[in-house]
Amino acid sequence: MLTILFDGIAYGMLLFVLACGLSVTLGLMNLINLAHGAFAMAGGYVTVVLVNRMGVPFLAALPIAFLVTAAIGVLLERTLYVHVYAKSHLDQVLFTIGLVFMAVAAVDYVMGSSQQFVKIPQALQGQFNVFGVGVGKYRLLIIVICGLLTLALQLALMKTRFGSRLRAAVDDQRVARGMGINVNLVFAVTFAVGSGLAGLGGALGAEILGLDPIFPLKYMIYFLIVVTVGGTSSITGPFLASILLGIGDVAGKYYAPKLGAFVIYTIMIVVLIWRPQGLFARPTMR
Amino acid sequence: MANTLATDVARRLARPSRWSPLEIAFWLIAAAAVYFLPNRHLILTEIAILALFALSLDLILGYAGIISLGHAAFFGFGGYAAGLLAKHALVTEPALALLLAGLAAAVLGFATSFLVLRGSDLTRLMVTLGVALVLREIANRYSELTGGADGLQGVTIAPLLGTFRFDMFGHTGYVYSLVVLFVLFAIARRIVHSPFGLSLRSIKGNSLRASAIGIPVDRRLIAIYTIAAFYAGVAGALLTQTTAFTSLDVFSFDRSADLLLVLIIGGIGYLYGGLIGAVVFKLMQDWLANLTPQYWQFWLGLVLVVIVLIGRERMARWVSPLRVLGDMLGDRVARVLGSKPR
Questions:
Q1: B-interface mutation test, from A23, A90, A218, A223, most B Cβ less than 10 A away
Q2: Of the candidates A80, A101, A221, which has its C-beta nearest B129's C-beta?
Q3: With a threshold of 0.90, does the pTM exceed it?
Q4: Residue B340 lies in a domain
Q5: Is B269 exposed, middle or buried (0-12, 13-18, 19+ CB in 10 A)?
Q6: Any domain includes B102
Q7: How do residues A202-231 score in pLDDT, each as one tens digit?
């Protein structure tokens, strides 16, 4: 029972790291980015190549995965995404679906369609018992890393100058611009960090979520659930949403495997009908 | 003065509802393919079905402005309904089963239409996507009824109207699909040019103002969503009937996403978009799949990205001379025939 809770929390934390970039880009630029999962996949594949083929230690590969995906993110943001901010949601959806299709086919072409596994060091495998609760070492690592990241993000958002600029830009872009905040720069940085985090999440999650070319399509709905249920106005909303989703999904698969993902989707629809702004969103005046 | 203005407005509104020569030529070519391309009937059937499906999406996206990422829900529902009706010999006449499958999808559309009334574009995206995923899960779980991941097998479709047998070359299938497509297209054409269709356009333009001038926004959206679900259900049923098979693939996200691409290629909001898009999409898919069997999705994605970056409005302007030509021809023909413009 507690093991399920533990696994669920690890899963949820992972989802949060994967999806938090998406929630910020949606809140900041009103951009529906269905291609977010492609960045996560990129991070996962970077780790696979580094660890399995080049022999880089797993823990050293994680920051590299972050940096590489962040670089890809900033490149795409500056060259392609800037053109679609002002377009309608329909155009954004089409554009990002197109990116997903291209990423899926490109990864298929380069890496093959089979599932990839990251070689995890011996020290991180297996589990140990804490008061009779089986704790997977790897999952513990995920919780620690993701927990630290969440804290760092929260602090960066709340205490730093950049954080207040970002919050100002999310709240009202026009006024923020009027106050002399370089919203474009803020957004480019945020996009890079968001995609980098997705890449890191993909690297960490390759073991748990599985990594194959259709990853962005398979998990797109999960990221979207996190964002829509959690709301886009804060970082705690998506965090709580992803923890709930993680625990719900793991418990659902354990206790009622016949129902599958059915429960999650139904809950999502109910929440969306009940509170279209998200469970944890502040009521906005806009 | 006010009277002439009113008649002028009425004439302008009625003008697009006339059949232009280009449209007539389009359908004549489609019908001529029955005789002139007999060995291409299988792909032509697919095109006709895809066109009907795209037409359905155009009704809600192009006219009512509802973005849907889960339109495959109704397609699949209709497909499974037709498959089950035929498999258990509940309704053997395909044309009747087609109607019933469409109605079943319409009931589903009516039930889920309340979900898309609320919220923003993103909420609608999520809800429509969620509905399709839930249906897919249900079809997967109740495998004793639907065959689960193996698909619905052992479907035998009785001869159409008791006489025309579905052959493996798709001759019957094509004529059947084309007739269904034409009939439903003509109805859709009537719908969008009616006052009801005009009210939908005003809702798409600005739903707040539309409700301010007395249009019952929610009821109109429910109505068109139900109608579109019927169309999608019929398209799904056609696919099942012409291939005598259906699988979980009918609910897949790819199908909904491809459908958006079809409609975008052809252009949204003028009904022929779905038809032209279906032709271009299928031919392109065929060509790309021959070129790079495994990776054609890459090129589809590239097309989507390029279309958005160039801008749909700009591309619409490139083909607009053709539409102007169609209108001119229409006026000319009307004058020659001596009929007064309505």
A1: A90
A2: A221
A3: no
A4: no
A5: middle
A6: yes
A7: 888 887 777 888 888 878 888 888 887 777
